[in-house]
Amino acid sequence: MKIKFIGAAREVTGSKHLITTDSGKKILLDCGMFQGKGLETDGMNRNLMFDPAEVDHVILTHAHIDHSGLIPYIYSLGFRGSVICTSATRDLCAIMLADSGHIQEGDVKWFNKRRVQKGLNPVKPIYTELDARACMELFIGVAYDRKFQIDGNIKVKFTNTGHMLGSGTATLEITENGKTTRIAYTGDIGRPESRILKSPQPFPQCDYLITEATYGNRLHPHLQEAEEELLRVIRETCVERGGKVIIPSFAIGRTQEVVYALNKFFNEGLLPKVNIYVDSPLAVNATDIFRLHTDILNADVAQVMLTDPDPFGFNSLFYIKSPDESKKLNSNNRPCVIISASGMMEAGRIKHHLANNIENPNNTILAVGYCSPRTLGARILEGADEVSIFGVRHPVKAKVERIEAFSGHGDYSEMADFVSCQDTSQVKKVFLVHGDYEAQSAYKNTLEQRGFRNIEIPAAGEERNL
């Protein structure tokens, strides 16, 4: 048996790792889209390094596009195996993948107008909204902590990682020639304390561990500090300066956490009297899915719901769906908070809000999640004096702030605590993925201090025998 590391190898997007058994079965761990590399991204996404028609199963750890986003693409190229994930992940993928296809069609339509003007041939989107809806027929939803028999020789079990709704460590048991090999793939690891999700849970003992290292060299502040910072930014921007707070936020997970914190402030009478707008159709639909899966939300949310039946809604909160409603926000000069996708500021309605607000020094751009290098979000956070949005140069005059404690990724101490549920003497090898090389190298040292040995940091395209 061997494994090939295709994406999220010494970088943080495009998670894909292909297991090939001795009998020829091909199991793909995640099927994520590369993001945030400009024109280079398109070619990276189209170059799969495997034949989709030969893949038997995709084991999907969670619904974020950098882990699930190429499933419609491989479907369009002949993949007809199964996609096995938790039930909440399946529900989220149904809206997220369709949204991804819709965005690609819109982006390509705009891009092709410019190509035609230059006498160049038009290009096609990687996949369409129709492809995304069609591939959902392959999804199989599995409950947490239930061992699922894929076939006579392969079993999988998902245990909660607390990273996003439905996220789970996938522990595979593969039996060949009378020998069973246990492979644990954590996907992304959440924080032990979350505003709305249950804490990450220990996962079964493995022989081989594949795990992330996004924040392998950083520590996060406490969650309470993040909430205090959020309230401070809103007060300083909206009350003292009369400006707007623009929050680029991932539609799934970060948006709901920010809204939940604002709901808490509202209930406690601490929230300034300004309107809060969630301007993302995907976030609106995803919030409805959160309401359907209250069984996997944490005890704090359950307690709040005893007196507040909707922890994701209050009187001054407005969910925006239509493009016309979104456009009206641009002419609204009153102080307000606008939460809009995407978190890395690379696509979606957030780019329009940035274009309309980034030149006003009374406003604040508040980042609440991770931004990959070379994304628009990263350039703004790094202090760029000027950025290009839709081909137009904009001076950055708005105040730029960041609250890292809202991140859905655990820091190096939290991740190390999570994987310490393993008996290190039984773990034959550890593979670090989903992180830049500097963070991975630092995290490797942390894990060695915890007793793990034989830790490797594979590069893209490298294979290892298991």
Q: What does this protein look like?
A:
The protein is an alpha/beta fold. The protein has two domains: 2-218 and 408-465, Ribonuclease Z/Hydroxyacylglutathione hydrolase-like (Metallo-beta-lactamase, Chain A, 4-Layer Sandwich); 223-406, Rossmann fold (3-Layer(aba) Sandwich), CATH 3.40.50. The chain is 32% helix and 22% strand. The chain is built from 14 helices and 22 strands. It has a seven-stranded mixed beta sheet with strand order 6-5-4-3-2-1-22. It has a seven-stranded mixed beta sheet with strand order 7-8-9-10-11-20-21, covered by helices on one side. The protein has a six-stranded parallel beta sheet with strand order 14-13-15-12-16-19. Helix 4 runs antiparallel to helix 5 (129-135) and helix 4 (87-117) runs antiparallel to helix 8. The longest helix is centred in the N-terminal third of the chain and has 31 residues, at 87-117. The chain starts with a strand and ends with a strand. The mean pLDDT is 92.
Write the layout of secondary structure elements.
Blueprint: E1 2-7, E2 16-20, E3 26-29, H1 39-46, E4 57-59, H2 65-68, H3 71-76, E5 82-86, H4 87-117, H5 129-135, E6 139-142, E7 148-151, E8 154-160, E9 168-176, E10 179-185, E11 208-212, H6 223-240, E12 244-248, H7 254-267, E13 275-279, H8 281-292, H9 299-304, E14 317-320, H10 323-328, E15 336-340, H11 350-357, E16 364-367, H12 376-381, E17 386-389, E18 392-395, E19 399-402, H13 412-419, E20 429-433, H14 437-449, E21 455-456, E22 463-465
Parallel strand pairs: 3-4, 4-5, 5-6, 10-11, 11-20, 12-15, 12-16, 13-14, 13-15, 16-19, 20-21
Antiparallel strand pairs: 1-2, 1-22, 2-3, 7-8, 8-9, 9-10, 17-18
Helix pairs in contact: 4-5, 4-8
